[in-house]
Amino acid sequence: MFNKKFIFQFGTKRAFDWKNKIASRMDSRGFTFVETLAALFVIMVGISSFVTLINQTVSYTKTSSYNLIAAYLGKEGIEIVKNIRDSNFLKAYYDIPAGSTWLDGLTSCQSGSGGCQIDYDSWTLTPYTGAMLKLPDTGSKFYNYSDGADTMFARRITIDPVGAGPDYLHVEVDVTWSEKGRSHVFPVQDNLYPGSW
């Protein structure tokens, strides 16, 4: 009746075709769940790295901005003291008022006394109180102690005489501020000699 050889060959061929059909269906169905999870993991690592980079860049930009402001405030403190020294030198040169010296008003701010503070438009150093500098909302945009909203910056000026006479004044301006729970100090120093411009 039936040839056994024919049945075996037909059955084998049919089994082989069945395996190929399953394999082709598996290939055409798309990604497996594991492949999808792996792709999502790679995408999430890329996105989180990008977000971390942006956050660090913003943080460094703010820190750099605050350091720049502190440097300018420190240099302004030095320049204010230089202006007082220069004014004193001219007063002493013309002897107005009589007995003026280049040190007038500058020796009360030694580091042992706690230092001084001063506004950009003032000629008198006052004892340091730790008050925050203010920045006006309108008009002049100069930092001061009297007008505007408090900023995060405070400026302390110390002036120490060096040598007999003294030979010169060592001026140090420390600008301090707090950011994210951390305190920062930006020191600016200079030496002022009598009559040197």
Outline the secondary-structure elements.
Blueprint: H1 4-28, H2 33-94, E1 116-117, E2 126-127, E3 134-135, E4 149-150, E5 154-162, E6 168-179, E7 182-192
Antiparallel strand pairs: 1-2, 3-4, 5-6, 6-7
Radius of gyration: 38 Å
Low-confidence stretches: none
Q: What integer is the average pLDDT?
A: 85
| Binned strand content | 15-25%
The number of helical runs is 2
Q: Strands of the biggest beta sheet: in what spatial order?
A: 5-6-7
| H and E order | HHEEEEEEE
Gross geometry: rod-shaped
Number of strands: 7
The first-to-last residue Cα distance is 125 Å
- Share of helix, binned: 40-55%
What does this entry look like structurally?
With 197 residues, this protein is α+β, with helices and mostly antiparallel strands. The chain has one domain. 44% of the residues lie in helices and 20% in strands. It is built from 2 helices and 7 strands. The strands form 3 sheets. The chain has a 3-stranded antiparallel β-sheet, with helices on one face. Strands 1-2 form a two-stranded antiparallel sheet. Strand 5 (154-162) and strand 6 (168-179) form a beta hairpin. The longest helix is centred in the first third of the chain and has 62 residues, at 33-94. It is rod-shaped. The termini are far apart.
In short:
Helix content is 44%, strand content 20%. The chain contains 2 helices and 7 strands; from the N terminus they run ααβββββββ.
What are its keywords?
three-stranded antiparallel sheet; 44% helix; alpha+beta; rod-shaped
